[in-house]
Amino acid sequence: MSTPLATFIQDPNFLDVLYIIAFALFIQGLRGLSGPTTAVQGNRIAAVGMAIAVLATLLNRGEGNWGLIALGIVLGGAVGVPAARQVKMTAMPQMVALFNGVGGGAVFLIAWSEFRRSGGYTHTATYITIFSLFAAIIGSVSFWGSNIAFGKLQEIIPGRPITLGSAQQFVNLLLFALAVAAGVDIAAGDHSEAIFIGMLVCAALLGNAVVLPIGGADMPVVISLLNAFTGLSAAATGIALDNPALIVAGMIVGASGSILTNLMAVAMNRSIPAIVAGGFGGGGAVAGAEGAGEHAGTVRSTSAADAAIQLAYANRVVVVPGYGMAVAQAQHAVRELTKELEARGVEVSYAIHPVAGRMPGHMNVLLAEADVPYDQLKEMEEANPEFQRTDVSLVIGANDVTNPAAKNTPSSPIYGMPILEVSDSRSVIVIKRSMNPGFAGIENELYFDPKTAMLFGDAKSAVSEITTELAAL
Amino acid sequence: MILASTLTTNLAILVLAGFIGFVVISKVPNTLHTPLMSGTNAIHGIVLLGGLLVIGFAGNGVFNKVILVIAIAFGTINIVGGFLVTDRMLEMFKSKPKPAAKADPAEDKAAGGPS
């Protein structure tokens, strides 16, 4: 192509302008995500930005190997499109983990091919080598870590922590040190590909070793952290390849992932290092051992019929959904119940803890899927003052996030964790499978409160039963 | 000299992007954090550009071409899948016409109430 038009559109300055437009669209698109009405458009704006960035790259003068490019894109599309179309909303966390993983995979593969093509970074500026190596290590950690997170959430790998015991921290540090040492060696001028592959392998093992010991309940934090990692590795790739769109997009994702990780850690009252150190979010393993029992108080259990009457005569009901609701896929049943209540003039809202579900905001997605209006979804800060004027709080499969011990018992492991102050309401109905404690393995005082009634059973069938009883009233 | 200035310019872009990211993302409500995560996830699929650029450079052997095709496929999965799934989620958050308008609950109780 040598027409004036071709010369113009292949001009590096023109392409840089396209990249700038692309990242401006990313930022504008993310701004749209600040509200439910603008969010759909925001996401599409960001997608347009991405299309422009890809187009600009394909226009650049050095571009070639069109057949291979088409092959890669077709393969990716053939996998990505059906996966995104068909995934269930409850499976969203593992889907995000998987998409995150392939992003990290792309980063380290690109760095590896750059290493090979340039003969081990000969005639490459040192800073480019350093950023490329950084991208390779972090990308590899993110790829393997995300895959393990996916496996745990999909229950291919057991959700309980898999650890090497006390040696774990030492092994992690050793792997990290080895990967960094290999990187330093290459940056100092070693052109050996064996060293580079060794570095990738250490990073891969590190990704496995860090995520395997983390329990299923802590996975949301891990995914969010790995998302930040992949973003940072993309930004590093951008510096290595001198591409502004990559730098900006990668860095924004890095910032976003860091914010979310921090928010979640705060909401769980745990530090990020403590989560990464692992071994706490044990799920069933810890819970089963503790069992029910030693608490002095008595538990009052109720029936679906009694619960229906209690709800029907309430003026204001707050639904507190938790992980148990997501597992039982009870969101549609819950929506049916609240519709029935609304038809009877009961004011219904949903109080959602920041870490309810398996990723931040996951519960909201599930409820939105069941057609719950956005304005009925209340965040914790908004919901807590309202409990005092609530007649019935209906807790569905939520446990630790309602435990008053977080406020009242300084010796409790969850003391200080922000909770939904359900015990402020006039009465509480808890739908729960059994008296087993939650993932923290702690008894919930709420269940022994005289104003609490327990309805034992699977969330979905229990809620449906209440709805049936309600309709019969 | 030229390299140094490219580096500093890019570092400046990096730092500014970080701050913009913090400001923009901080405004997203908890309710939309899952779509935010999958949306930003799609955006880091931009590493696809890296694959597209490098595969165009001269000097890639067969093995390199293979791993770059995989990288391009991975990047495409990340982008296409991420944006589609985010779109699906956000569509559900769009406000729908609400059938049961907020009647005064207290009045309802007094008037009819459940039998």
Overall description:
The complex is a heterodimer of chains A (473) and B (115). By secondary structure, chain A is of the alpha/beta class. Chain A folds into three domains: 86 residues; 194 residues, no CATH class; 179 residues, Rossmann fold, CATH 3.40.50. In chain A, 59% of the residues lie in helices and 7% in strands. In chain A, strand 2, helix 16 and strand 3 form a beta-alpha-beta unit. The longest helix of chain A has 28 residues. Chain A is elongated and about 80 Å long. About 3% of the residues of chain A have low confidence. Chain B is mainly α and 115 residues long. Chain B has a domain of 63 residues. In chain B, helix 2 runs antiparallel to helix 4 and helix 3 runs antiparallel to helix 4. The longest helix of chain B is centred in the last third of the chain and has 32 residues. The chains are: A alpha/beta (473), B mainly alpha (115). Chains A and B meet through helix 2, helix 3, helix 4, helix 5 and helix 9 of A and helix 1, helix 2, helix 3, helix 4 and helix 5 of B.
Query: What's the structural domain tally of chain A?
Result: 3
Counting helices, strands and paired strands, the structural category of chain B is mainly alpha
Amount of helix of chain A: 55-70%
Shape of chain B: flat
The averaged pLDDT of chain B comes out at 83
Q: Mind describing the biggest β-sheet of chain A?
A: 6 strands, parallel
Q: Kindly state the mean pLDDT of chain A as a whole number?
A: 88
What integer value in Å does the Rg of chain B equal? 25 Å
Largest sheet of chain B: none
Beta-strand fraction estimate of chain B: under 5%
Low-confidence stretches of chain A: 280-294
- Largest interface, C-beta within 8 A: A-B, 125 and 98 residues
Number of helices of chain B: 5
Radius of gyration of chain A from the CA trace? Answer: 26 Å
